[in-house]
């Protein structure tokens, strides 16, 4: 997907396709994952991919590429942050899948990053959000703005926790 304006139509088509196939049941998270994976052009540039989308979390992956490394030969802090942030957004999308077409805004307000170990190779970020908040929002139908917290744990291929990121978001859903 090359233009931001294509995003709502892609999401609408994913929802319509699901309704044609399955009726009014839980959304097809794999189809939603594919749409979300293509939403941010910067992620294409860096190579970050959403590889898993669930109602309780999301996983994003950063490839092992020389151009993503710093002068020390380890993964650059900015690349680590990006994969963590994408996993948090994926977690939100999975939790809000039932009302994803009504999401008007999802904005990162603040974050705290702890870089724990030098990161080498491919990274996987496991994002979660406060599902108590999203479950509560999903029970209502009106437009509302709400605050939400999330966390991402970033691991290297050896399973070593290399970073922990806490997020504060604000979202609006109609």
UniProtKB/TrEMBL annotation:
The lineage of its organism: Bacteria, Bacillati, Actinomycetota, Actinomycetes, Frankiales. CDD domains: PaaI_thioesterase. This is DUF4442 domain-containing protein. It holds the Pfam family DUF4442.
């Amino acid at each position: 997907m090359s233009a931001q304006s294509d995003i709502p139509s892609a999401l609408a088509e994913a929802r319509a396709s699901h309704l044609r196939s399955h009726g009014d049941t839980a959304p097809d998270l794999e189809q939603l994952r594919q749409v979300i994976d293509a939403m941010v052009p910067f992620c294409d540039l860096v190579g970050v991919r959403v590889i898993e989308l669930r109602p309780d979390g999301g996983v994003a992956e950063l490839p092992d590429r020389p151009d993503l490394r710093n002068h020390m030969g380890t993964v650059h802090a900015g690349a680590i942050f990006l994969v963590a942030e994408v996993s948090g957004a994926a977690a939100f999308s999975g939790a809000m899948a039932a009302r994803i077409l009504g999401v008007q805004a999802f904005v990162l307000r603040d974050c705290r990053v702890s870089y724990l170990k030098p990161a080498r190779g491919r990274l996987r970020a496991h994002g979660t959000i406060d599902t108590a908040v999203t479950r509560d929002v999903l029970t209502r139908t009106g437009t509302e703005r709400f605050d939400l917290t999330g966390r991402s744990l970033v691991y290297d291929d050896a399973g070593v926790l290399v970073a922990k990121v806490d997020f504060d978001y604000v979202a609006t859903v109609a």
